[in-house]
Amino acid sequence: MTTRREFLAFAAAAGLVRPVLRPSQEDTGSALVSGKAKPLKFEEVKGFLSKDQLAVHHAAHYGGAVKSLLQIESELDGADRTKANANYSAVRELKREQVHAMNSVVMHELYFDGIGAVPADPGEAAQEAVKKRFGSLDRWLEDLKAAAVSARGWALLVHHPVNRKLYNVVTDMHDIGPMVFGVPLVVIDCYEHAFYVDYRNRKGDYVAAYPKFIDWGEVEKRIRALK
Length: 227
Known about the structure:
The chain is mainly alpha-helical. The chain has nine helices and three strands. It has helices at about 5-15, 30-35, 50-75, 90-115, 125-135, 135-150, 195-200, 205-210, 215-225, and strands spanning about 155-160, 165-170, 185-190. It has a three-stranded antiparallel beta sheet with strand order 2-1-3. Helix 3 runs antiparallel to helix 4 (about 90-115) and helix 5 packs across helix 9 (about 215-225). The protein starts with a helix and ends with a helix. Residues about 1-25 have low confidence and may be disordered.
């Protein structure tokens, strides 16, 4: 069984959290920590995403989520808790939108960090983990692509620390769908804003191109942290 320490160590390595019990650990650079959007690793990814596509996605959607989160948390500071109720209240709406914005920030960071500049093959740890669960890399990719084409929002390969299994999952909104404790290893933004500049309405072409540009070094780091 995965211990709490193992789970926190993996989540930190995956760029998800900065454990408060280990403040000396290197900062993840997440906007959840700094309050500022992380810069893109590349201006463009030739053969996959243009400069225009990445720029508008990063600035308007990821950057927009960062700004929204800061505004929400500022408004929460002054919200009247005495009027909170389950039907409608400022506190209820702000709390819901806080999770939505936080997840948007984190998933965008995982998505951008998980894209490589050039096509690459998975490393030993990634291949071993994927083959153990799906039988082969091809079977995993087939299932991941099907999940991505089906997704209205995000498709993710996640590791679940309770049963130590990998799953390709779909979430249609930032705050609906991801498994509790499920830790993302590979993340595909499937909203139209992620591909429409370059691919128009050809979502299938975008999904088909994505696996060629997975940053397997980043995935390896996340998978090795499981051990």
